[in-house]
Q: What sequence folds into this?
């Protein structure tokens, strides 16, 4: 194993560095401690406090539509608060908390059991499943090692540059494919790189920064093009319906590329500040990576098949934006074709199904279930209208900052498409009364909805990164607080300075 490379120490020995087992680091056997019991009880107490409270006041939107909070809506908010406490403080395994979300909805008759548990099979969950299968195929065939070794050959031995290289590659991939697929592609390669660092199986500052930063970079990169996530396509469709104007692919990238890439480099600096690597360099890493890459030889049949299948599926997903005939096809169904082809061609076998991280899938299934629950019971709309209604008479800048804060928060608890669908129509209607141009409302929502940095359930890359075993849910939230604050400040900078200089209208024409 590579020795620590600190100044004043003897140079690393020239013996060959062996790649450690690159499976994710698993935490020790979990026990029900007093601390975990405390947060279990706290979650139930918070639920009861919300559920048994008296009826809250109605929310009224700018056109006078009354939005009440029903019994089911109050119960949905209570379940949501319970789930957040359990997820953040690890009261139960994150996947088991996901199951609890469905159980409580059914037992309390918030929604029918078929709806509550049916969301665990939502196409978005299957998209994550398909992305993880591609990651398993890359790992099995050795493609992840090729990607990791090539990356190391570019960035060298410096752990600071490894951070930067990992985040840049993740963001670039998120320009061309869904950020879930980008994270699933990069994740196994980062595990290979991490196997050269320190003691395998032990969480480190470097491991925390590498994987948390990867998740954040996937979100930042995904806002730059329409290919990074379905949220932008949905947002543009809503905008066209409400405002009756089309926003082009190039216009989205023109305004959002500076924001996305500024966030990527600020995330890099933040990870260096929060999680400075224990070692400044990994001695001999580049040399060993070149040697191991050469030892891999030419691509074998299974590697080539896995690469071609994945590239073909990603091209089909990207083509949906440009080819109208492909647009109606479900993205998850297209991605799952890769799963079928990988098994049909023998790249994967039934034994590989044992490698699927069901904890992550159940986590995201629970997130989808509570997200749809908040949406269908009207609780999410009540929150959005109540919050934005406070700023109907405010200065335009105050209203837009309040909108950014709202979306940055709710995109951590409901699917980003739902967060956008909840906030954008209300904000566009309110903006008319304040004389704000609709364009800036759209782009603020697109940016904020792409950066759920507080919870594992906010986006699939967050859950995928958690599979490394390098950090706990509460550690992710602690890192996400300054990251969200940075995102908020970047949105303010764009709104007040950058976008006006780039030609975006801020105030509506009189």
A:
């Amino acid at each position: 194993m590579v020795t620590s490379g600190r100044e004043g120490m003897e140079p690393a020995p020239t013996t060959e560095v062996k790649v450690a087992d690159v499976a994710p680091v698993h935490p020790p056997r979990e026990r029900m401690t007093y601390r975990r019991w405390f947060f279990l009880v706290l979650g139930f107490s918070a639920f009861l406090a919300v559920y048994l409270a008296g009826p809250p006041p109605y929310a009224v939107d700018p056109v006078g539509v009354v939005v009440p909070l029903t019994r089911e809506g109050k119960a949905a908010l209570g379940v949501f608060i319970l789930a957040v406490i359990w997820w953040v403080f690890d009261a139960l395994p994150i996947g088991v908390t996901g199951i609890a979300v469905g159980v409580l909805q059914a037992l309390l008759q918030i929604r029918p059991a078929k709806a509550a548990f049916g969301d665990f099979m939502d196409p978005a969950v299957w998209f994550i499943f398909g992305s993880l299968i591609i990651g398993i195929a890359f790992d099995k065939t050795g493609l992840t090692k090729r990607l990791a070794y090539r990356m190391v050959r570019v960035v060298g031995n410096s752990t600071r540059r490894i951070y930067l290289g990992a985040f840049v590659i993740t963001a670039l991939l998120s320009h061309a494919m869904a950020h879930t697929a980008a994270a699933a592609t990069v994740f196994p390669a980062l595990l290979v790189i991490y196997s050269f660092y320190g003691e395998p199986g032990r969480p480190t500052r470097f491991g925390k920064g590498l994987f948390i930063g990867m998740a954040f970079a996937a979100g930042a990169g995904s806002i730059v093009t329409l290919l990074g996530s379905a949220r932008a396509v949905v947002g543009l469709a809503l905008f066209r319906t409400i405002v009756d104007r089309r926003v082009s692919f190039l216009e989205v990238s023109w305004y959002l590329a500076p924001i996305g890439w500024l966030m990527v480099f600020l995330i890099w600096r933040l990870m260096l500040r929060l999680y400075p690597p224990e070692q400044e360099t990994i001695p001999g890493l580049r040399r060993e990576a070149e040697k191991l890459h050469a030892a891999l030889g030419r691509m074998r049949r299974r590697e080539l098949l896995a690469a071609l299948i994945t590239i073909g599926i990603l091209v089909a997903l990207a083509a949906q934006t440009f080819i109208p005939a492909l647009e109606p096809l479900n993205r998850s169904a297209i991605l799952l074709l890769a799963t079928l082809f990988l098994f049909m061609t023998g790249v994967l076998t039934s034994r590989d199904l044992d490698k699927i991280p069901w904890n992550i899938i159940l986590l995201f299934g629970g997130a989808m279930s509570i997200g749809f629950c908040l949406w269908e019971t009207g609780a999410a709309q009540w929150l959005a209208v109540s919050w934005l209604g406070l700023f109907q008479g405010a200065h335009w800048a105050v209203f837009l900052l309040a909108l950014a804060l709202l979306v940055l928060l709710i995109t951590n608890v409901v699917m980003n498409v739902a967060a956008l669908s909840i906030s954008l129509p209300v904000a566009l209607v309110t903006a008319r009364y304040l004389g704000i141009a609709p364009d800036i409302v759209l782009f603020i929502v697109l940016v904020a909805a792409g950066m759920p940095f507080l919870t594992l359930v906010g986006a699939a890359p967050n859950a995928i990164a958690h599979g490394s075993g390098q950090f706990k849910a509460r550690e992710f939230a602690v890192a996400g607080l300054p990251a969200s604050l940075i995102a908020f400040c970047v949105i303010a900078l764009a709104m007040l300075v950058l976008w006006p200089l780039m030609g975006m209208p801020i105030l509506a024409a009189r």
